[in-house]
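2024-03-11 09:14:02 INFO receiving multi-entity request
2024-03-11 09:14:02 INFO entity count = two
2024-03-11 09:14:03 INFO echoing inputs for audit
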Amino acid sequence: MPRISATKEAILAAALELGALHGISGTTMDEVSERAGVAKGSVYYNFSSKDRLFEELLTAGVSSLSSALRNARLSAPGFAGIEAMVAAMLALIAGNRALAKLMAAEIFRTDRPWQVSMAVLRREALSEFEAGLAPLVPAGTPRGSLPLMAAGIFGATLMGGLEWLLFSPDTPAADVSAAILFTYSGKLDAGTPPTA
Amino acid sequence: MPRISATKEAILAAALELGALHGISGTTMDEVSERAGVAKGSVYYNFSSKDRLFEELLTAGVSSLSSALRNARLSAPGFAGIEAMVAAMLALIAGNRALAKLMAAEIFRTDRPWQVSMAVLRREALSEFEAGLAPLVPAGTPRGSLPLMAAGIFGATLMGGLEWLLFSPDTPAADVSAAILFTYSGKLDAGTPPTA
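2024-03-11 09:21:47 INFO inference complete, emitting structure
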């Protein structure tokens, strides 16, 4: 059974807090060591560099997201699976706001040492939305449209989720989910202003 | 008639290129001066600090986005206005990929000296989507849902647009728009796998 190192966990938590606050470039290993209450030598023993430390933090985050999306997708057939994915992603964002903010800022950067592993994982997360969407689009839909739709739903959930946490944290999660999902209902395109 | 300074433009263009490549923290005023082919004194004469330089770059970007969204919204009534806004935003992203990437990475950061002006402008851009959505949602919709829906459509367009430029730049803009808008058609929620 792999031993979970409390030291490693403390280092990752400190890096996350500092990274969300000051950005990755604005965070030093000295500050991480101080915030974690762990000797600097021990920080470097667990993570050979700041880059490795943040790479592990971010890839673990995207990896959790992929698993959660996969489980949600498999939990219900058809559009209910998409609804479950949106809800699962919002729950993850709410559960770890600092990580969600850090991931949102990193997800499209191409100047990081970890950009390749992030791109692979990002693709993995998006492919869960693609897999959920594939049976729902008309047969004639161009293949290239699926990744764009998947990115759209992913982006809507991410941006809606961050909007929620930053500007209306008291709104119940179910209402946030309902608001985002309402845009997919086709009711916006009713043509005339609807009545109650 | 205000004189448009070629020097100022060269500095902003250099800052944008470097910022998109190395991040804002990874960019120095020395590098900006070198890339722009402008003396360092002149860089500081036009922008008192690196923070002011990037603040001007980013706020000008969000401000252009707001105007484009507003024009698009007013160009067509009802859902056609939303369609026009999605298309206008995609056109802006395609027209200035470096700025779109930089803005995507900055839009939810709260550790920047310019966070207040960015938040105000971000709100302005989102409020265009809100204004477009307001007449389209059912009368009983909670007031708090509109900003979340607006953030969702904004996020879908941003993420879909970046996905497009990074991974399928040969797809025509109209197809990207169509893919994102299809998710709002209600057809995903058809219940059973549709036939051609």
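2024-03-11 09:21:48 INFO post-check: Chain B touches chain A through 68 residues (CB under 8 Å).
2024-03-11 09:21:48 INFO post-check: Chain B has a mean pLDDT of 88.
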